[in-house]
Amino acid sequence: MEDSAPRPIRSVFAWLVGASQVLGLLAVVLTGVWMGHYRGGFAWDGSAQEFNLHPLCMVLGLVFLHGDAILVYRVFRNEPKRNVKLLHGIIHLLALIMSIIGFVAVFDFHRAGKIPDMYTLHSWCGMATLVLFCIQWVMGLMFFLFPVASSWLRASYLPIHVFCGLVLLVMAIGSCLLGITEKLLFSITSTYSQFASEGVLANILGIVLVCFGVLLGYLITKEEYRRPPNPEEESLSVHFKTLTEGGSSTF
Amino acid sequence: MEDSAPRPIRSVFAWLVGASQVLGLLAVVLTGVWMGHYRGGFAWDGSAQEFNLHPLCMVLGLVFLHGDAILVYRVFRNEPKRNVKLLHGIIHLLALIMSIIGFVAVFDFHRAGKIPDMYTLHSWCGMATLVLFCIQWVMGLMFFLFPVASSWLRASYLPIHVFCGLVLLVMAIGSCLLGITEKLLFSITSTYSQFASEGVLANILGIVLVCFGVLLGYLITKEEYRRPPNPEEESLSVHFKTLTEGGSSTF
């Protein structure tokens, strides 16, 4: 479907989306290089190589796929809403599966190595993010994909769902940064302060994740990039205008 | 000036603002207790007690005061815009002074103890936040308090200023969480995993900071809590409607 936005807005938007994908993929690649090259690769046997799946799955699932699942509402803002909703739900499902694999990997590694669980700030923030992400996904499924709630309830829940989605993306990125710091201080305590290449690479990964989050936040919240009102969908969809005084965006 | 919003919206808003202040002050108090009780108090002599000023100043300046400086646009949304702008700038100035004291304290401590600087992800994120915060403050001063720029430039810069303000608050909170993790892993490595009271207190501080950020984010971005349009100010102020297609908020 033809984009109704003026050409300069479309062009800037396309560049920003492209940049966000480069940053997101770069974060996944840097995590893979860190764990694959510096930390001995991957396995599923309770060893440190099983732990290595944890950062990779979390960056891929809770950050990159989670961010892209939100972004589809902006990228495909002129496509039929039902298709975009379905894509949003499917990418979130992939994100959820990756996150659960990452979650199991770290607890399996801790159990095998008799390492205590859930005492660090990273584990508290990460667990809160994953639990809330699961709740958000189930609620989204019930309210919007298989609407069991009334139109009024869906309309009331929509702005909360949108706000929580962005908060959870930020929390996921924050938890990753805490995990990076924790892993470096556990693994390369003596050489980190001498700017060991592993430490610099992991720090750069952290900065790339922050940039990905800022760019996604900009693309998601900028008024011009929101889904334009579509009169044909008005009777079927939930519309922000009915919720907020003078608001103009649809989701 | 009388608030034009309906009574239930005013009431929920007041409770949420109250809760944000409780969380913000709680974060400052918890940081004070952590540094004062567990880490030996405060001094200005290059010792570990001088370092202890760093977390306290950063939580007070870059998080609590920074958040409140943004919040004044919502709390005093029916007061004359000039007064609110002035208050916004003054609280930000206090935040900047506190942050610079905190910044000097940690570098002074590192110099005295011959501890390397700027190698951790916390230091990279924290430095980026502080530098961008300084730039944001100077730009805000030039554009809005002593307007040296044209109306068109001010109007173009306003949404960027607003977006960056919220991003910097999130980055400040993220940097604090990284600092908490770093400090705990440097100081109580052996007892952290046994849920030592210091570790639990610092983790709770981290969660309180996250909750403060989420609540501030909600209060700042919610459409109903934005400054209502004021025809008397229209000719003097920058109005979002001229910037974004169909937007309704003023700043």
From TrEMBL, chains A, B:
Transmembrane segments: 12-33, 53-74, 86-107, 127-146, 158-180, 200-220
Claim: Protein biosynthesis is one of the keywords in the record: no
GO cellular component terms attached to this protein's record: chromaffin granule membrane; lysosomal membrane
Keywords linked to the UniProt accession: Cytoplasmic vesicle, Electron transport, Heme, Iron, Membrane, Metal-binding, Translocase, Transmembrane, Transmembrane helix, Transport
Subcellular locations according to the entry: Cytoplasmic vesicle, Secretory vesicle, Chromaffin granule membrane
Protein's membrane topology: Multi-pass membrane protein
Catalytic activity: Fe(3+)(out) + L-ascorbate(in) = monodehydro-L-ascorbate radical(in) + Fe(2+)(out) + H(+); monodehydro-L-ascorbate radical(out) + L-ascorbate(in) = monodehydro-L-ascorbate radical(in) + L-ascorbate(out)
Coiled coil spans: none
Source organism superkingdom: Eukaryota
Main location: membrane
Cofactor needs: heme b
Residue ranges occupied by any Cytochrome b561 domain in the UniProt entry: 19-221
Name of protein: Transmembrane ascorbate-dependent reductase CYB561
